[in-house]
Amino acid sequence: MDLPAEFGSSKGAYSRLRNWPIDGTWQRVFTALLAQADADENLSWVVSVDSTVVRAHQLAAGARKGGWPTSPRTMSSAALEAA
After folding, report:
1. Which domain holds residue 6?
2. Dihedral (CA of 53, 5, 10, 2) sign
3. What is the C-alpha to C-alpha distance for residues 31 and 27, in angstroms, rounded to an integer?
4. Alpha carbons 1 and 41: distance in angstroms, whole number
5. Cα 56 from Cα 65, distance rounded (Å)
6. Segment Disordered: which positions (predicted)?
7. Is residue 31 part of a domain?
C-alpha cells in the first residue's frame, strides 16, 4: 500500500504485476537476463521462484471452535437422511 510515487497507485501496481505473467512480461525479462548472462559468459547462476501459498488452519483464523452451524443446503444427503 505504501509505494513510492514513481510506481503510481497501489491498485495500478497490483494490476500491472497481476498482468505480467499473462502478457508475457516475465518471460521477456527472463529471456533478456539469460541473453545478457550468455553474452557475459556468466551462466553459473540459478533462478528459484517460490509461488506456494500457506494458509492458516481455520481455527487460527478465528473460526468458532464448535464449528459453523450447518443448514440443509450444505449438509450431505446421508446427513439429511440421518437427521
Report:
1. 1-42
2. positive
3. 6
4. 39
5. 15
6. 64-83
7. yes
Residue with cell 487460527: 60
pLDDT tens, residue by residue, 28-59: 998 998 888 888 887 776 666 666 666 666 66
Domain count, the chain: 1
How many residues are present in the chain? 83
pTM above 0.85, yes or no: no
CB atoms within 10 A of CB 19: 11
H helix or E strand, kind and range, residue 77: helix 77-82
User: Using CA atoms, how far apart are residues 32 and 12, in angstroms rounded to an integer?
Assistant: 25
